[in-house]
Amino acid sequence: MRSLRIRSALRAVVTAAVALVVAGGLLAAGAQAPVVADGGAGARAVATAEYDLGDAAFTDPESGTVSEVRAVVHYPRHLTGKLPLIVMSHGSWYACDSEDADTWPCPAGSRPYPSYRGYDYLGAELAARGFVVVSLSADGINMTSFDYGDRARLINEHLRLWQELADGKGGPLKGRFTDPETGRKVAPAFAGHVDMHWVGTLGHSRGGKGVMWQASDKHRAEWPAGVRVRAVLGLAPVKFDDPEGDNSDTLITKLPFAVVTGSCDGAVHEAGQEYLDDVAGRNTRTDFSVSLLHANHNYYNTAWTPPASLGEDDSTCPAQELTPAHQQDALTAYAVAFYRYELYGDRSGLPTLTGHRPLPGATGTTRVVPAAVRP
């Protein structure tokens, strides 16, 4: 990977340890953030559902990679109006719950590993603040492919299915939602209540490069009809160009994006900050950078975090690292502020992102260009 170049004049680099800045005030880590209300309402009650179309439900039209179509959905229990959709994609981890599994679908005696459930804490917080949040499974890709286009096209397949559902056309998702706890069928009233013109994406690790690929100038024409991505968050994303020096597959100059990294990340370090270097002087939209002091790579995903069955602590500074709860709370604060700003035009969380009221030890400045505001 190329050496990391920091351009503080173009973005904020904010360090986070045990305190969080939310909506203009300081909160102890783990505290409930003040809710930025929609229409004067308080925090919304949240419901959870899953859909599972099978381990071989999607065959990539370009690579032939066979993937599952499986996801967990967090959403406001009482759906009113048309809400933005956020799609989250995990990165490369064990595809099956047996370390010896080497085929997809998983061999007998092994089951798909639930990496997609590792962001439930974040999905629930975003849903409480007015979003429908889909965290998709990519175990088939993890087992069989290193193609980031596969990750982008799997995201597009989920978006295509949601576009059909949101438009009232039904499609393959109609009647396929279940309660994750009981397995019983549920029927959330998503039709007419999901705005596919206001979509956010989040990708962790290899999924981070996947969302950058999906949203890039080069690949945005591949978005499903009726879908418009408006905000992208790369979470501890991998960063390497293939071929070296050619960043066209992930270059985003036409929409806002944020990058969140950790100073003790033992997997990819802070190379993801280079995505902002690539667009220096070229992206006229908002971009934000957050570097979490003493954060590692895996704690953002609870399924990758001990004591999860295959969890690991990858920290390069174990004596100083944040607890999983602190790291997840920090991500939640920044992610909520970012998506509320970009998808609702809500500026009350800007101190979190810009460092105008910084955390202890925060450095850097930011360039903030007003984003499109939802009507």
Automatic annotation (TrEMBL):
Signal sequence range: 1-33
InterPro entries noted in UniProt: AB_hydrolase_fold (IPR029058)
UniProt entry keywords in alphabetical sequence: Signal
Superkingdom to which the source organism belongs: Bacteria
Signal found in the keyword field: yes
Name recorded for this polypeptide: Alpha/beta hydrolase
Organism: Actinacidiphila alni
